[in-house]
C-alpha cells in the first residue's frame, strides 16, 4: 500500500512538472509584439499605476491575472490581493501573464488564417470572445504603426546581415 501511494505522488509530480514546463516554454507573443502592445496600451510607461482596475505596462486586469494562473513576483502569495498589482506592475510578471493568457486564448481573430501579434493585441484589449470586433482607433493606430516600424527595422537588419 505505501508503495502505490508513493507511485501516485510520483505521477502527480511528473504531471505537474510537465504542465509547468509546457507553460514555461510556450511563449506565443514575440518580444516585438510585447513592446508594441505596451506602447499602444501605456506608452510603455513603467510607473506603477492602475487605470480603472487595469494595471501596469500592459494594463492587465484582475480577471486576466486570475485566468492566467495568478503568477506572482518572487515571495508573493497567489492568494493575496496585492499580488495582482505587484505582478501587473512588474514587467516580467506582467509579460509572463500575457504569455499564459495567449497560450490559453490565442486564436485567429481577423480571419487571415494566422494567429499572430495583431490577434493578441485584439484579444488583450477586447477579450477572447470579442476579438473579431474593430479595435478602438487610437489603440489600433499606435499598435499598427509600431508593428510596421518593427517589421521595417527587421528587414533592414536582415539586409545588412546578408
Ligand atoms: C507615466 O505615468 C505617470 C502616472 O500616470 C505619469 O505621472 C507620468 O507623467 C508618465 N510619464 C511619462 C514619461 O509619460
From TrEMBL:
Keywords for this protein: Antimicrobial, Bacteriolytic enzyme, Disulfide bond, Glycosidase, Hydrolase, Signal
Disulfide bond sites: 33-117, 38-44, 87-93
GO terms, biological process: defense response to bacterium; killing of cells of another organism
Range of residues in the leader sequence: 1-23
EC number(s) from the headed UniProt entry: 3.2.1.17
InterPro entries: Invert_lysozyme, Lysozyme-like_dom_sf
Coiled-coil intervals: none
Pfam families, per database record: Destabilase
Catalyzed reactions per annotation: Hydrolysis of (1->4)-beta-linkages between N-acetylmuramic acid and N-acetyl-D-glucosamine residues in a peptidoglycan and between N-acetyl-D-glucosamine residues in chitodextrins
CDD domains membership: lyz_i
GO molecular function: lysozyme activity
Entry keyword annotation includes Signal: yes
Entry keyword annotation includes Membrane: no
PROSITE patterns per record: LYSOZYME_I
The protein's name: lysozyme
Native species: Drosophila virilis
Taxonomic placement: Eukaryota, Metazoa, Ecdysozoa, Arthropoda, Hexapoda
